[in-house]
Amino acid sequence: MKLIVYAIPVFFILIGIELLIARMRNLSYYRFNDAVTNLSCGIGSQISGIFLKTFTFIGYTYLYQHSIWKIQDTVLTGVLLFIGVDFFYYWFHRLAHEISFLWGSHVVHHQSEEYNLTVALRQAALQGAFSWVFYLPLAVVGFSPGMFLTIASLQTLYQFWIHTKLINKMHPAFEYVFNTPSHHRVHHGVNPKYIDRNHGGTLIIFDRMFGTFQVEEEEVVYGITKQPKSWNPVYVNFEYWVDLFKEAFSVKSHADKVRMMLKGPGWKPAELGGVEPMKDVSYATFTKYDTDIPAALNYYVLVQFILVLAGTTIFLNTEMKEPFSGNILLKVGTALTIILSLVNIGGIFERKAWVPVLEYVRLIATAAVVMLLVKSSANFYAISGTVAAIALASAVWFTTFLPLFKTTNTHAEVYAG
Asked: For a tag site, which of 29, 216, 263, 302 has the least CB within 10 Å?
């Protein structure tokens, strides 16, 4: 995980470069609300990972300690582990698309209807709670936890750059072995011929071996077949599961309840209308979810999101140190404050009626948490004064937008070509 945290500045530099190139070429690859939601989901995933990593790492370490033999960390075993990690990632990823309950742990990554580098960071908060089980055979075989974490992080880092439309197809030899932007664009498509294809992480050879490979042909339409239609990162993480369980508990047959969990996403018994046929889609006519707020309010969101991002980066780099290491309540409180901020940013995009009250609460809570964190610092008064001034200025600035939250203005727009 630390490798990914250290790579965050590089991610944002590359996102900035992609955005600049797209603007210079007059390409509509980015929408502000979509990009912020992608990054918000990424922050949520990193925050939840702080609390999940302990349990997942303990499980892997326990099996490794009780394995019959231990494999030495060498260049050769590193290459073998790399192939092993990619192999088990392929099967988790494939089954996460083919088993409805598992799809709920991965669907967030596919919800964006754009395709740019911010989509790479749009990860589900609880995916790690499911995916780690698939890697346990590597612990049983005897690959060390340290080497596993390093290789798994490198595999994750590799997948960042393939989330772009700026790179077309690459050399055929490279495309045959490795996952590329072209291959992964297919994976994110809702075109019927593209659904559930190209599950590879770093390598594409397992898709070729197991019959899930599809070359990029027609223009890709991005997203999922049933959009959550929300910019709220908490809602989009759990909306699919809530709907799945609600429908499953409504059917009479217990066998059908189980089938709804284990069959492919969208499978329904006859009493719920059965499986709906796939609908053909066209990029020229596809309707994307969007909402409209004034440019001035977008600037407010941008400033608040930058502050949240800066605070999150500090938190991720210090959560193992004081004062967090000895105070789980402070760690949880800080995490919840960050999540609250992201939820409210999503609410601002949607102009929800509950936003104004929660925004003032958020500003006060954020200032209070920061003051608690620095209470032992020699610069306590300077930092506290600065934080209080930022919170007060933000509150005054936000107050100018209050009339906008008396009515909502959510609409869908058509983006063609």
From this structure: 302
Q: Name the residue among 6, 205, 253 with its Cα closest to residue 90.
A: 205
Per-domain residue ranges of the chain? 2-210, 292-406
Nearest to 398 by CA among 297, 321, 322: 297
- Position 57 scores a pLDDT of 83
CA dist., res. 102 & res. 132, Å (int): 13
What is the tally of helices (H) and strands (E) in the chain? 17, 2
Report how far residue 381's alpha carbon sits from residue 377's, in angstroms, rounded to the nearest whole number: 9
The CA distance from 381 to 371, in Å, is 9
Cα torsion for 5, 11, 13, 19, to the nearest 10°?
-150
pLDDT higher for 411 or 139? 139
The helix, strand and coil proportions of the chain, stated in percent and rounded to the nearest 5, come to: 65, 5, 35
> Rounded to an integer, what distance in angstroms lies between the CA atom of residue 113 and that of residue 148?
33
pLDDT digit string, tens, across residues 115-159 = 999 999 999 999 999 999 999 999 999 999 999 999 999 999 999
Q: What is the CA radius of gyration of the chain?
A: 23
Where residue 211 falls (left for φ over 0; alpha for ψ -120 to 50; beta otherwise) is left
Mapping DSSP to helix (H, G, I), strand (E, B) and coil, where does residue 346 land?
helix
| Closest to 300 in 3D by CA, of 385, 383, 400 | 400
Distance CA 233, CA 237 (A): 6
| Residue 51, strand partner residues | none
**Sign of the torsion formed by the C-alpha atoms of 382, 383, 388 and 389:** positive
Nearest CA-CA partner of 152 in 39, 52, 9, 4: 4
* pLDDT tens by residue, 188-224: 999 999 999 999 999 999 999 999 999 999 999 999 9
- Take residue 7 and report the two structure tokens written for it: 């790579």
- Exposed/middle/buried for 328, CB within 10 Å: 0-12, 13-18, 19+? exposed
What is the structure's pLDDT at 417? Answer: 39
Question: Does pTM surpass 0.85?
Answer: yes
